[in-house]
Description:
Elements: H1 6-21, E1 26-36, E2 39-41, H2 45-56, H3 58-69, E3 76-85, E4 88-96, H4 103-120, E5 125-128, H5 141-146, E6 149-158, H6 160-166, H7 171-188, E7 194-195, H8 199-210, H9 217-220, E8 223-229, E9 235-244, H10 256-264, H11 277-303, H12 306-313
Parallel strand pairs: 7-8
Antiparallel strand pairs: 1-4, 1-6, 2-4, 2-5, 3-4, 6-9, 8-9
Helix pairs in contact: 1-11, 3-4, 7-11, 8-11
Amino acid sequence: xxxxxxxLVASTTRGCKVINESGGCVTLITDNGMxxxxxxxxxxxxxxxxxxxxIDSDEGFLKLKEAFESTSNYAKLKSIKTVLAGRNTYIRxxxxxxxxxxxxxxxKGVEKALYVLKSxxxxxxVISLSGNYCTDKKPAAINWIEGRGRYVVAEATIKSSIxxxxxxxxxxxxxxxNKNKNLIGSAMAxxxxxFNAHAANIVTAIFIATGQDVAQTxxxxxCITLMERTEEGDLLVSVxxxxxxxxxxxxxxxxxxxSACLEILSAKGPNIExxxxxxxIVARTVAAGVLAGEISLLAALSxxxxxxxxxxxxxxxx
Length: 318
């Protein structure tokens, strides 16, 4: 983690220790795909609807897929979603991109696919390669609902005795706090993907340390934290993060310090045997870190230690 907030490091470390003492956590990835969403304008809504029908057909998808994948050895087009707004057609291409974050790779593929589409239908007018239907570096419900990058879930069961001794609170208090703060409170605020205590803190710190595109913290921090009491009285906690966008090649991952951090994770560079696996390790690490951070911060709020810990760890002693 790379951050100027001392309390964040200490708090996340406490969460990691609690998870380790309870047997560790489980992480899994349910989906993977970077997206790009261009705008196409047609002469009228009838032509726009016909274009959508073609793109949505098996024939249309296969033609665009062939063009898209001809631009890269790693880009594999998974799906195309189209919507209309008047005579505008918004197309969301979704593709795996190996161990790259993939925006440039996908953009290149989309550009070729649009060239082929225009050759098939000369009425196609490409307004922009990106029409904000992707959506990149902006809050958007589509990323929260359909995912972007890697869709990751992390889960752990924390023993009640550890909750009481290490976290200075109880399982019931944590469950109640999480419901009223992260779920109800976020709903009252009209949050999109913000059903958590501070996922962005950990995401940003790991992004900086591993050379990720920090602006993508916006969508990568989409997270819902869930807590419940098990039949044995322990704490079952999970974080679900549908749009973690990470890489182990390209961009800041090549910098010396960031490359060293990736090496610590055994995720430096591309995975030749299983392309995409190294980036998945980073995504899993992000989710596990967020899980630890959520546990610790909610415990501090529950026990009333939040302010005192910040005063102790974030103030310069004179």
